[in-house]
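Hey, resending since the last one bounced:
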Amino acid sequence: MIDFSILPVYLTAVIALLLIPGPDMLLIASSSLSYGRKVGVFASLGNATSGLLLTLLAAMGVSALIAVNPIALQVLRLLGGAYLLKMGWDCMRTTPADTPELEQQSGMAATLYRRAVISNLLNPKALIFFVLFLPQFVSAQATATSGEQMLVLGLLLNVLGLLFNLFLVTMVGSLGKPLLKNEKFRTNQHKFMGLIFFVLAIWLLASQVPTPAI
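The structure tokens again:
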């Protein structure tokens, strides 16, 4: 369904992109550090879920329509920033008594999954990335339509991204294991995540979102 002659170039570009630190990497790494590997895995799955949805929107041409609308992009940016600020505020308001016991840390998994999905979907830069990146590797030599090629390329991107994030979770989760047994850290772990959400909100709200020429 795709032109396999461009596959080496595409895979090289994907690997290079995965190695560049970004908000997704920060959220997944901090989740793993604060709550353990299981929560990090669910945050990675949340990121992959949003990636699949963005791939479908790009393949259907919906994301291109949004990407050329400056008002829609600004609304997305403001909603995304407001959501991250709310998550940060909720974490900061958490008292030590609300901190789960060590054996209950996995209860945060579903929460971080949802947060990863929503924060990425409300990030206009993620949407624009799929609009600008995938079409570069659509080939006229392939028998599939451009939408079908973008779907396959996007699925490949998401699979590689998930594998990379799971590797990151394993590494960071191992490093953070002693912290999860530290009473002082566990008392403040929600506040640490609150700080991460505030950083992500500022990152998103302060960034300039270009309108691509489609």
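The radius of gyration is 18 Å.

Sorry for the duplicate.
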